Amino acid sequence: MAAKRMNSKKRYELLTRNMGWETTYQSMDEVFPYDKFEGIKIKDWDKWEDPFRLTVDAYWKFQAEKDKKLYAIIDSFAQNNGQMNISDARYVNALKLFIQGVTPLEYYAHRHYAHLGRHFRGEGTRVACQMQSIDELRHAQTQIHTLSHYNKYFDGLHDPFHMFDRVWYLSVPKSYFEDAMTAGPFEFITSVSFSFEYILTNLLFVPFMSGAAYNGDQATVTFGFSAQSDESRHMTLGLEVIKFMVEQHEDNLPIVQGWIDKHFWRAYRVLALVSAMQDYMLPNSPMSWKEAWDVYFVENIGALFDDLSRYGLRMPKYHEVATAESEHLSHQVWLTLYNYSHAAGMQTWVPDDKKLDWLSEKYPNTFDKHYRPRFEMFRQMEADGQRHFSPGLPQLCQVCQVPMAFTEVVAGDAMKISRRVSTYKEDRFYTCSDGCRDVFEGNPAKYAQAWLPVHQIFQGNCGGAELADVAKWCHLQPGDGGEHVGSPDQDRWKKWRGEDTVKPTVMAAE
Amino acid sequence: MSEKKVFLILQDTEDSRPIIEAVGADNPHVSIQRQPGMVRMEATQSLRINRETVEEKVGRDWDVQELHLNLVSLSGHVDEEDDYFELHW
């Protein structure tokens, strides 16, 4: 008679326990050289528990099934010219930003979780990191495969990894992730698994992918939700990591809280780009950035920290600033991108009336007062043949690397640029907020070395002194960025749809 | 008693339908919200999927871990056993 099937707890235990050993040829500290220097004290690695208890055989089975489903949809999307069913060509700019700014992060995560999967001393922790590493590679690959179809029809999707390393706004996600990757393993996993994935990733994937569904992009919805199904596991890992560290030793608490504070703020600033994507790039928006923030941050993360308070953890520092900014963030970022998209791999535009009305409705306290008049002015300038692009280069925050365009909303002056100054070795360094200033001052030797695109351009390290030189060095091609109205993307779209090409001035006056 | 909410989001697909029905049957306090492409189930304090209820709805054996195939996001501590999947604060 066949033995009774083991339950999942037992199977998982057999997979992850007693597979390692105390090394004798080399000391354990030599074999695992990175997991002590950060000051995190672990008494018993076996207390680590993965709530999903996914074994390797189950993992392969489910991942294979997810991929089969996804690739069937991608195939059918390509065969049926799915790109024709999206709401508007403007929408594709969200995909440009996604593949340039998010997909390379998936690949970074793949590499670094592989590193962690080697370097944590506990076997259970290593297994969890190894599976996540494979997940992240799958995400990078499925995103590239899915979006390669759009690359046949639209500009700006042709060289995302090259752009990621060079283009100014992409240094925002790049510098955040490299900050985490150059830290120790516990800080990295707190940053990416908890501060980014648990606290903030719902804001990236859930409303955005729901938005893709709302804009007729079947392929993106599918890779997005397919990735997100892994993400749920990663989020749970993030929460487990935090609980594990603070339960292991009381000395860990202040270190962990400091990392949560720092990386919440770092990751939140990366999401500034997502706020613009959600409110402005989706022609049909199912949910505003502020609504998403209220549901996924204020309510959900409030509940999380209410629970974590029994360990002595509190909400990330400056969370109230982020909440106050939720009524301003997307508008300030989109206006910045609007000014500089001639040097970008994605296009910008003045929202049409329907969108402006939607923004007025969703942001009753701020949009009509501060932002709508500016869009109406830009529209008038376009009608007069004066589409505005800023000819100079913006000052960047030394830490988050976003142009200094955020304002003093907490201090009650939404029209005053928020700027902090720190001095380190007789040089001045500018940051955009108390959050970024604290990160800088916490480790000035690290952030003083930041590779800031604007500084690098001025120093002559980016292909030349003219915009065209820098664009060439970034592999930006004409049509990738700039104004959407009158762009080759828009021209092609209108031809496919049998619509007349509308001159920018007529469009702007409608 | 705290009013903290947990949530579970599944893709809006045919595979998810019996799971959503089972959640509705076993969690009288759940609020089920349909959004583009996804279904969000939200409940105060805890939310539970029972394997047996899903099996009744789907008419075959169902492994709790099949949930992974349609999962979009969740919030709360996860308690997964062979017979149920529970989220709680």
Structure description:
The complex is a heterodimer of chains A (510) and B (89). In chain A, helix 9 (185-198) crosses helix 12. Chain A is built from 23 helices and six strands. With 510 residues, chain A is mainly alpha-helical. In chain A, the strands form three sheets. In chain A, strands 1-6 form a two-stranded parallel ribbon. In chain A, strands 2-3 form a two-stranded antiparallel ribbon. By secondary structure, chain B is an alpha+beta fold. Chain B has a single domain (5-88), classed as Monooxygenase component MmoB/DmpM (Phenol Hydroxylase P2 Protein), CATH 3.90.56. In chain B, 20% of the residues lie in helices and 43% in strands. Chain B contains two helices and seven strands; from the N terminus they run E-H-E-E-E-H-E-E-E. In chain B, helix 1 (17-26) crosses helix 2. The radius of gyration of chain B is 12 Å and the shape is globular. Chains A and B meet through helix 3, helix 10, helix 11 and helix 13 of A and strand 1, strand 5 and strand 6 of B.
Features:
heterodimer, A: 510 residues, mainly alpha, Ribonucleotide Reductase, subunit A, two-stranded parallel sheet, two-stranded antiparallel sheet, 23 helices, 6 strands, 60% helix, disordered C terminus, B: 89 residues, alpha+beta, Phenol Hydroxylase P2 Protein, four-stranded antiparallel beta sheet, three-stranded antiparallel beta sheet, globular
